Amino acid sequence: MSDEQRREEIAKALEAVEARVADACAAAGRPRGEVRLLAVTKTFPATDAALLTDLGQTDLAENRDQEAGAKAAEVRELRPDARPRWHMIGRLQRNKARSVVRWADEVQSVDSVRLADALAKALRNAHEAGERSGPLDVLIQASLDDDPSRGGCPLPQLGELADHIAGLDGLRLRGLMAVAPLGADPARAFARLAAAAADLRRSHPDAVELSAGMSGDLEPAIAHGSTCVRVGTALLGARGLASP
């Protein structure tokens, strides 16, 4: 497939996803501007990410640090005038914190005090080394299924973790992220998440982001207050290229 054909393919997919988001917002009685679209580019090449920036997509998401760091650097080379905002949405090991703060504008998968501490330390070191400036936005990943293999902070512990993050220099608590449980009704799961988000905002009024909904369930997520949907398959296809 030529670059122009791939651009046309992605453009059509982006238009279709935008229409779904707009329709879901209208059905929920919400302005379209309340919901951001994150294009999940994991396993797809930097050329696809660059094409997305050409089409006006400003938020890109990855779930593996090893792939993401190199891809973000390549996109900077391919599109030096583009300024995409990069989001880490996958499970993150503490030993990857130093690398992640070099490329990520936001980490959506903070699920423990130890990981938050590691990110804060890595951010301080990055500032001192001149590798980046400014704060790191973070979202707490909430567990909706209590499955430790999928990551996430149990709902009863969200307040404690939020308080800890709020006390760390350099980290800016922005809200919650979650993935609907496998095989469960996503609407019920997102209703629980919305209630947890409302509780969190009572103590942390700036934590207004609610990242929920993917290619298969963005509509019920938006119906329950999602401000950020993470879409990969519906934009770029079911399978990406193997990462180096």
Describe the model:
Keywords: Pyridoxal phosphate. Residues 14-239 form the Alanine racemase N-terminal domain. This is Pyridoxal phosphate homeostasis protein. It contains nine helices and nine strands. The longest helix has 26 residues, at 3-28. Strands 1, 2, 3, 4, 5, 6, 7, 8 and 9 form a nine-stranded parallel beta sheet that branches. Helix 2 (46-54) packs across helix 3. Strand 7, helix 7 and strand 8 (209-211) form a beta-alpha-beta unit. It has 244 residues and is an alpha/beta fold. It has helices at residues 3-28, 46-54, 65-78, 97-103, 113-128, 158-166, 186-203, 218-223, 233-236, and strands at 36-40, 59-62, 85-88, 106-110, 136-143, 153-154, 171-177, 209-211, 228-231.
How many strands?
9
Distance between the termini: 20 Å
**What's the helix-strand series?**
HEHEHEHEHEEHEHEHEH
Class by SSE composition: alpha/beta
Q: Are there runs of 5+ residues with pLDDT below 50, and where?
A: none
Helix tally equals: 9
Mean pLDDT: 95
Helix percent reads: 40-55%
Major β-sheet profile: 9 strands, parallel
